[in-house]
Amino acid sequence: MNNLKNKKVLLIICGGIAAYKSLEIIRLLKKNNVTIKTILTKNGSEFVTPLSITSLSQSKVYQDLFSLENESEMDHISLSRWADAILIAPATANTISKIANGNSDDLASTVILASNKKIFLAPAMNVRMWEHRSTKENIIKLRNFGYTLIGPVVGDMACGEFGEGKMSEPKEIINSLENYFGDLKKNNKLKAIVTAGPTNEYIDPVRFISNKSSGKQGYEIAKSLSKRGFDTTLISGPTHLEIDEDINLIRVETAEEMFQATLTNLPADVAVFSAAVSDYKVKEKSEIKIKKQDNLNLNLEKNVDILNYVSNHNSLRPGLVIGFAAETNNLESYAIKKLNEKNCDWIIVNDVSKSNIGFNSDFNEVSIFYKNNKSDKISYKPKSEISDEIVEKIIDHLN
Asked: What is the pLDDT of residues 158-168, one digit of tens each?
């Protein structure tokens, strides 16, 4: 099945010896009945010509940020809205740095900054440039922005060196686009619910019981599900995080509010319960502020167990129920115990006793325990990449 048929792709060609491969990318896209528009950067024009691009794409090549001919069209807006996806190939170290830091001094970077579409990058640079700390930090930023990298690969380079940094072959790049649009088509009828963040359980109008959850991992999972085509609802406790417009965001504060929002949005195909729901709430909240006193006794009661309720419900239970466990010790035994007691399909556990992962960090490492007694570990990396791997496993499971 040709998932690229009738799609619209904006190709951005940057300066680098790998730019010659962009001509083959255009040829393959046209072969797959893709409509192409091209932006050629100033440095890119040192390697390929507008004439060669036009002859293959059969469409105009855009180069100048301020063009009297197209001033009324607002190219940086119209091009970003026109495309179904944007492909930057080759994506040089300079371009990666520019867009990671929000710079927009030419048409290509301005279009990217103004875009609300899926963006793919095919990096191409010297191995030392790829391994430089600044490049690595920029790549983390772009992944967190939701950009997808295709490559680079290990191989011989034009400069005579060998290593990682070589641009992926055009066929591999086309396959990545094909898979992306295939996932959108396949998953767009599937509904996913994600809970994220802490809950606040009020003692009085100004004090509450809560925890250190930032919601970052749950938000990233919602983003990963959405970009793979799922109709995604994110039910979030109190956070300062932002989410993509195409995700249905429901903000709640207490465990009871999160529970009711979850029930309202069932049934679903997948439910990921990553929220750190407070285990207890005050039995009787004071309607006025409690004044300071030497001893304060709180009468607590258990909150509703959302994961347990949904996972054991006969008619509302999603096809795949995933719980989270934030632990400080005995991770495996506690995770397996929770998996069995809650009757969920997967439990994803992480160690929140470490300062560099888990709560409030942009990084994580997790272990996934499955109902069939198998397990996987996803090693230390940005939460956005952790989420992509989790969603990839979700898709494999559903298939």
From this structure: 777 888 989 99
User: What are the two backbone dihedrals, phi and then psi, of residue 7, each rounded to the nearest 5 degrees?
Assistant: -80, 160
Q: Do residues 197 and 228 both lie within one domain?
A: yes
Q: Give the Å distances, CA to CA, from 121 to 14, 78, 93, 316, 336.
A: 11, 20, 11, 40, 39
Alpha-carbon gap, residue 70 to 80, rounded angstroms: 15
**pTM summary value:** 0.73
Domain that holds residue 234: 188-398
Question: What gap in Å lies between CA 398 and CA 383, rounded to an integer?
Answer: 22
Q: What is the DSSP string of 231-280?
A: EEEEEE-S------TTSEEEE--SHHHHHHHHHHT---SEEEE--B--SE
Q: Work out the average pLDDT over 184-188.
A: 77
Work out the pLDDT band at 173, boundaries 50, 70, 90.
very high
Are residues 265 and 208 located together in one domain of the fold? yes
Q: Does 203 fall in a domain?
A: yes
Comparing CA positions, the residue from 311, 309, 328 lying closest to residue 319 is: 311
344 is catalytic: no
What does the alpha-carbon distance between residue 50 and residue 169 come to, in Å, rounded to a whole number? 22
Does one domain contain both 243 and 144?
no
Q: Which residues lie closer than 8 Å to 60 by C-beta, 6 or more apart?
A: 37, 54
How is residue 199 written in tokens? Answer: 């809950």
Residues pairing with 282 in the sheet: 300
pLDDT at 80: 80
Q: What pLDDT is attached to residue 150?
A: 95
Annotated catalytic residue, options 154, 159, 263, 298: 159
